[in-house]
Specification:
heterodimer, A: about 900 residues, alpha/beta, 5-stranded antiparallel β-sheet, 5-stranded mixed β-sheet, 29 helices, about 15% strand, B: about 120 residues, 5-stranded parallel β-sheet, 5 strands, about 20% strand
């Protein structure tokens, strides 16, 4: 008789009464729910992992946990069943019964994956739910086959209706569970998903257990006659219980593990999501256009700014190719760079994109400018930032336009100036031809009138002649100046003998000198003194100065002196033209070399002249590689000094004042005590007093000796900065003193200026005198000479820092006339640059200057160890506040308000500062 | 009497200088351009030539070159008169073979000195 079959009323005897252990029933349902939860959770994960292989692993894990869950539920349900008979379970059938269950799980998982991929349909649903239900049913009935009675045959008969119902319950509930599960896809909020998962798991659990218990309800058990023993391996209920328990624990653990992992993964995913969102938001918020193209040059990320810029109607979405986007912008005409040459531009652009170098500029319609920096990041793609530099570009363009205009204006002005000069040169030439005739005929007439004896006409003719000459000299000056300004004045360099030229000039100028009853004293070395320069210009220069001197002095003395000076790099000649005429005020001195200005407007009326003479003279001196300086005082006369190189550098006239900075003194070592002292050796007390006053005014301290012997003693004792020495003295004359001074190592280095009425320069120089001056002494020149030899002042210049060119010039001239060499700087920055090159002796500093003012300069200066001890005198027009004073206190040596000190005071202060400085240095070293 | 050839195109200057030189006892003959000057120098054999440089037909430099190239005239001293007091013009005159130069406007004493240097006695 068949042990299994449908109940048809032909069963042997009464059906066995069955009972259930309620706790095991509950456990079975719980296990079904847990397994469903684990499986569904795994199904939920599948979508998140992208790769196919791991998807399959997840499907297998889910299918297995679902199948084993169904299987465990079944056998716990079976253990809950109490029959009045011992039973055993056929091992093979028991194991094989897992197959339909696992298949059901696999189907469920596959559908879940499809669901994730949003490829679901109602049909798929129904089919899947039905298959899952069928799987559960198959497992159940296969499991039932495994049960056998021990000792008696156990016959099972299934009531067809309930059997059918059990299958329906499985199919319907499985469908419902899947449907609920699929709701997850629609839900946005987390805790909803949580509940839906639990709901779906419970329904699925009930689908399994509901099927089982309905199936059990349809089953009638009967005892048969025979004994089932086909020798196959069988499991006792106890060992089954152990297996099922183990499986259940496994499922529970799996469910817990899946939950925990799920949470972790979810958290990580959330964190990633939020950081990604943050990053996108940050990218979105930057004002520059941002784009990231992946390794295949497809747009990965970009921000709104980029979209706005690049969107030419097509829309910019991730995945678009770089080429398409760029071409869109180019074709639409937004990118002005590409206008009219799109293909060419595209090629360049793509090449640049492939190998980005430094940033570049894009010009967009609407006159917008962008700076694009592209970077290729390995394994990520190309990042590009577009910065709007329109404002910058506009400013830049305006600036360059302004500069261009300024340059054009300046070029125009220069051109106009050149044209004007050329015109003047031509005009002057045209004017000279008729002037030539006028003067010539006039001279002719004068001669003829004289010959004919018509003396009455002579004065008028003389007047015409004088006026004509004057007009001609005006024209000549204008011609010269305009030629200089037009850059057309050439140098005609030749070699000549200076004393011969001086003699020639002396003879030529004599009538002019005599006109105002002046006396000319010429002081020029009689030795052969060659010079290589432009003779005509030198002659004109000296003529100018001498004719000026003879104009402005009456019954006075005019001196023309020539001295030589040997410095490193070549010899220099000083031509000094001095008069004791009307002199000039400091204001007049300031303007004396400027074109079209005479010392005084009334000067022209009174003394004539064009006012161009000194301007031309100065320009000539500069062309000849030297310069001119002036010393003058109202009522005392004027002294002009021209300093020229004995050999002019070929075709390169040196800039004004440059030579003085290269002057090198032959003295390096100076005794500490006498550093600022001048020793005057003269037996004439009156001379001593005059010289004492002169030197003290210039800031020196003075010692006097009335005899040669005393002079020698004081020289050894004081070791002064310089000695002035008279020649004609009783007992020991100046020559004797000079010889002894130069033979004593202590006094050997002290420069000696011979001040005498005797004119024997050659002897003086050959005995070692530094300078030779004849009485009466030009005191300022004497001071300048002494200063020149004083501890090499000229070696280390004085740095004058002032932005006002006029102030600077006055200061420099004052210093140069006192024998100092000078370097100029128009503000603190240039001064610092200079300091890097050469250390000055002293700094004269203005405070209010552009670029770097005096305060900033002082800070920088004192920061440097090597410059910390440099003496600084502040000369400023600024009203110094208490705060300013505090700032400068201790940092600068002296503060002088501009214009509130005399030239002598300033020089005294400077001398004092320099000697203090030297004393300090000597103490240190 | 020493014969001086004055080559000058400006009528006033020519007249003025010719008269002044005549007063100083020179026999002055006149040419108004460079070509005339060269021709007169050959036909009249003057003792000295005063030559303006800016001349029509043939300029003074060219005339000087021709004078110095011809065996008949090369011994005659030529003093260039240049209105351009520029070094290059002076140099150009000397390069063209002139023996000396003087700048215009003429200073009669200076010019006479130069003439006398060539024509002593």
């Amino acid at each position: 008789m068949m042990t299994h079959g449908f109940y048809d009323g032909s069963q042997p005897g009464l059906a066995v009464a069955t009972q259930y252990d309620p706790s095991l029933v509950f456990l079975s349902i719980a296990i079904a729910c847990l397994a469903s939860y684990a499986a569904l959770n795994i199904a939920g994960r599948i979508g998140a992992s992208e790769k196919n292989r791991s998807q399959q692993v997840w499907i297998l894990a889910g299918a297995w946990s679902m199948g084993i869950g169904i299987w465990a539920m079944h056998f716990i349900g079976m253990l809950a069943l109490k029959l009045p008979l011992s039973v055993s379970y056929d091992l093979l059938t028991t194991v094989l019964s897992t197959i339909p269950a696992i298949l059901a799980g696999a189907i469920m998982m596959s559908v879940a994956v499809k669901n994730r991929q949003r490829r679901r349909s109602l049909l798929l649903f129904a089919g899947a739910g039905t298959l899952v239900g069928a799987g559960i049913g198959s497992m159940h009935y296969a499991g039932m086959m495994a049960m056998h009675g021990i000792g008696k045959e156990l016959i099972m008969r299934f009531a067809p209706l309930l059997f059918g119902l059990s299958i329906v319950v499985a199919v319907v509930l499985a469908n419902l569970a899947l449907y609920i599960f699929f709701l997850i896809g629609r839900e946005k909020e987390d805790h909803h998903i949580w509940w839906i998962k639990i709901g779906a798991a419970v329904v699925m659990g009930f689908a399994i257990s509901g099927m089982h218990y309905t199936g059990m309800a349809s089953t009638y058990f009967f005892f048969g006659e025979g004994e089932h023993d086909d020798g196959r391996m069988a499991l006792s209920p106890t060992s089954l219980a152990i297996w099922v328990s183990l499986t259940s624990i496994l499922i529970t653990l799996l469910a817990i593990a899946v939950t925990v992992i799920d949470r972790r993964l979810k958290k990580a995913a959330d964190a990633e999501q939020s950081s990604r969102a943050q990053m996108l938001e940050a990218i979105e918020s930057i004002s520059d256009g941002f784009s990231l193209y992946d390794m295949n040059d497809r747009l990965a990320v970009c921000n709104q700014r980029y979209r706005e810029l690049m969107d030419c109607g097509l829309g910019i979405v991730p995945g678009m190719s770089f080429e398409a986007i760029i071409r869109g912008a180019a074709v639409s005409g937004s990118l002005l760079d590409a206008a009219g040459r799109i293909d060419e531009w595209m090629n360049e652009r793509l090449a640049r994109h492939r190998t980005p170098r430094s940033h570049f500029i894009e010009h967009w319609s609407g006159d917008r400018w962008f700076r694009v920096s592209e970077r290729r990041v390995w394994n990520i793609g190309t990042v590009a930032i577009r910065t709007d530099i329109t404002d910058l570009k506009r400013t830049e363009m305006e600036l360059s336009k302004a500069i261009e205009e300024a340059q054009r204006a300046s070029a125009n002005a220069e051109e106009a100036s050149r044209a004007k000069s050329a015109f003047l040169a031509n005009m002057s030439h045209e004017l000279r031809t008729p002037m030539n005739a006028i003067i010539g005929y006039c001279e002719l007439l004068i001669e003829e009138v004289e010959d004919a004896g018509h003396q009455a006409y002579l004065p008028d003719l003389q007047k015409i002649h004088t006026a004509g000459k004057h007009l001609l000299s005006l024209i000549n000056d204008i011609l010269d100046l305009s030629k200089i300004e037009a850059g057309k004045m050439d140098l005609y360099v030749e070699e000549f003998d200076v004393p011969a030229i001086i003699e020639e000039i002396k003879n030529t100028i004599q009538p002019l000198i005599a006109k105002n009853a002046n006396r000319l004293i010429v002081d020029c070395p009689t030795t052969l003194l060659r010079m290589q320069s432009d003779l005509t210009k030198l002659r004109q220069t000296l003529f100018n100065l001498l004719s000026n001197a003879s104009k402005f002095a009456k019954e006075g003395q005019i001196t023309l002196a020539v001295t030589t000076e040997h410095v490193e790099g070549g010899d220099w000649l000083n031509f000094l033209v001095a008069d004791n005429g009307i002199g000039m005020s400091p204001e007049q001195i300031d303007k004396v070399f400027e074109a079209f200005t005479q010392a005084d407007n009334s000067t022209t009326r009174k003394y004539g002249g064009t006012g161009l003479g000194l301007t031309i003279t100065k320009k000539f001196c500069q062309m000849l590689g030297g310069d001119i300086s002036v010393n003058s005082a109202l009522g005392k006369g004027s002294t002009f000094t021209i300093r020229l190189p004995s050999r002019i550098a070929a075709s390169k006239p040196m800039a004004a004042r440059e030579p003085s900075s290269t002057v090198k003194s032959n003295k390096d070592h100076v005794a500490e005590s006498g550093i600022n002292t001048v020793l005057i050796i003269d037996d004439d007390i009156a001379v001593q007093e005059v010289l004492r006053e002169t030197f003290e005014k210039a800031g020196f301290s003075v010692a006097c000796a009335a005899s040669g012997e005393e002079g020698l003693r004081l020289a050894k004792q004081l070791r002064p900065a310089a000695i002035t020495l008279d020649i004609l003295m009783p007992h020991m004359d100046g020559w004797g003193v000079l010889i002894r001074l130069k033979n004593d190592p202590i006094t050997l280095d002290i420069p000696v200026v011979l001040v005498t009425i005797m004119d024997d320069k050659n002897l003086g120089y050959s005995l070692g005198a530094a300078e030779y001056m004849t009485k009466p002494v030009d005191r300022q020149r004497l001071v300048a000479l002494v200063r020149k030899h004083q501890y090499g002042t000229t070696d280390c210049p004085i740095l004058v820092v002032d932005d006002d060119a006029g102030n600077r010039d006055v200061m420099c001239r004052t210093l140069i006339s006192a024998g100092y060499s000078v370097i100029e700087a128009e503000h603190g920055q240039t001064a610092l640059t200079f300091l890097e090159k050469c250390k000055p002796r002293l700094i004269i500093l203005d405070l209010m200057m552009p670029v770097m003012d005096g305060f900033q300069f002082m800070t920088k200066l004192r920061e440097q160890e090597k410059w910390r001890t440099l003496p600084v005198i502040v000369v400023t027009a600024k009203e110094l506040t208490e705060e300013d004073r505090m700032l400068l206190q201790g940092s600068v040596e002296l503060m002088l308000p501009k214009g509130a000190f005399t030239r002598e005071q300033l020089l005294q202060d400077i001398t004092r500062q320099i000697s203090t400085q030297i004393r300090t240095q000597d103490l240190i070293t | 009497m020493r014969k001086i050839l004055l080559v000058e195109d400006n009528e006033m200057n020519r007249d003025m200088l010719a008269r002044r030189l005549a007063k100083k006892g020179y026999d002055v003959i006149i040419a108004v351009n460079g070509a005339d000057g060269v021709e007169l120098a050959q036909s009249q054999a003057p003792d000295l030539i005063l030559m303006d440089m800016s001349l029509p037909v043939m300029d003074g430099w060219e005339a000087a070159r021709q004078l110095k190239a011809s065996a008949d005239t090369q011994a005659i001293p030529v003093i260039a008169l240049t209105a351009h007091a520029m070094a290059e013009d002076r140099q150009k005159a000397l390069d063209a073979g002139c023996d000396d130069y003087d700048t215009k406007p003429i200073e009669i004493a200076r010019l006479l000195g130069k003439i006398q240097a060539f024509l002593p006695g």
